[in-house]
Known about the structure:
This protein is of the alpha/beta class. Helix content is 37%, strand content 20%. It contains 14 helices and 19 strands. The strands form five sheets. The chain has a six-stranded parallel beta sheet, with helices on both faces. It has a five-stranded mixed barrel with strand order 15-16-17-19-18. Strands 7-10-11 form a three-stranded parallel beta sheet, sandwiched between helices. Helix 9 (267-275) packs parallel to helix 10 (295-303) and helix 12 runs parallel beside helix 13 (364-377). The chain is globular and about 65 Å long. The structure holds 5'-deoxyadenosine and iron/sulfur cluster.
Amino acid sequence: MLEKKQTKKIEEILTEIDLEQPAPAEEPMRQYYFMEKARRLVKTQAETLGRPLTFHVTTFGCQMNARDSEKLTGILEQIGYVEEEEENQADFVIYNTCTVRENANQKVYGHLGQLNRVKKKNPHMLIGLCGCMMQEPEVVEKLKKSYRFVDLIFGTHNIFKFAELVATRLESDRMVIDIWKDTDKIVEDLPSERKFSFKSGVNIMFGCNNFCSYCIVPYVRGRERSRNPKDIIREIESLVADGVVEVMLLGQNVNSYGKTLEEPMTFAQLLQEIEKIEGLERIRFMTSHPKDLSDELIEVMAQSQKICKHLHLPVQSGSTRILEKMNRRYTKEHYLGLVEKIKAAVPDISLTTDIIVGFPGETEEDFQETLDVVRKVRYDSAFTFIYSKRTGTPAAVLEEQVPEEIVKDRFDRLLKEVQSISAEVCSVHTKTVQRVLVESVNDHDDSLVTGRMSNNLLVHFPGEKDLVGKLVDVRLDTCKGFYYLGEMVASIRV
Ligand code: 5AD
Ligand code: SF4
């Protein structure tokens, strides 16, 4: 759903655009010009076909990509495309790709093979590719050579140009490729479409300057840039006016927010400003880097009425020796110290993490250190990954890559430990009453709805569809490992 006020404003702007004039140079006006241009082209095609044109955006990877896909969707709807549930039925299919691990790339090539078969039967279909994978020159070379049926390729830095690129493709019959190496540009005020009416991701910064030695993100997402706090507040205020009660502040390393601003500001200060927004009930954020997690932030989390009791704090490894090779810039002891401080300041906090197994040179002793951290912290949940070699990163040229069967064995042992601890940690809330934001009708049983607690756990309980988007109090009756079954005790807002 496009924000109502925003739709009206953009509608007004579009009707005033004179396509006889050359495209304006400044943003976002330039994109509005191309939205209008594309809209007319789409309208003509739809009239010829006797039905609206449809689109489907498939998103791979992280929350950042999910938010980018909402932006793509907002623009496509403004242009006149209608969303289609089935990828294979859509007139315009877009893959928003991820490249953080090699298997993410393989998945995209697999999907593309299938789409090629669909396109052969349906030649007017358009296929667009964007996201992190497109920032890798070898990928684009491969697509140009072996995937000629792709229509549009663009990257992470020029996603704001989407309307212009679509218009260019609709006017020509050739593959359109536009990849930027980096940018310091942040274009505000483009349309976006939210997946949920009551919660939304909000980008607070783009890019990453950390260069963890295994990670490709700084190369494909570019240097760190923070959005102006005024723009962030304005966006959240307008989301709240449109029914949003929960925001997820997004950045690769939110704890270093504000360092690059003309008037520097800390993430903790930004959180305090966001807290003041009336009508906003919950604030989440991710991802936090342990090296930048300040006492100021811990204090703000402890005092806040709105910041959710959940911190995602990727540890990656428990071995100080490996952490150094990973260029993480903290030690095992520093990390455990942080965890202690947070648990003392916010006693009911839920902690989650990311862990990589099999980084080059990881020994059994290093792995035992990781298990030790897992046992000491007792995470509510952990995303565990097998190290994936990413060409172009410093770790890719390290010798001593760990043999596959050893990595697999460590991965299985880690997963077992993580799962048994998290089942114990999750169950401690049994019989308590928790406030939850109802997110959906249950997929398997439509007499149940599903709500999310402040600590990110889910609970299913009997309830009607009209509870979706509302905050309610629920008694947690039975813990089912990673979620609860419960009973509503009170509705907070109607
Ligand atoms: N191999 C495996 N996992 C990786 N991650 C990032 N790069 C790699 C890689 N090359 C993981 C990290 C990060 C998460 C988003 O993905 O754990 O926190
Ligand atoms: Fe990658 Fe490290 Fe930046 Fe996270 S902080 S995106 S792991 S380089």
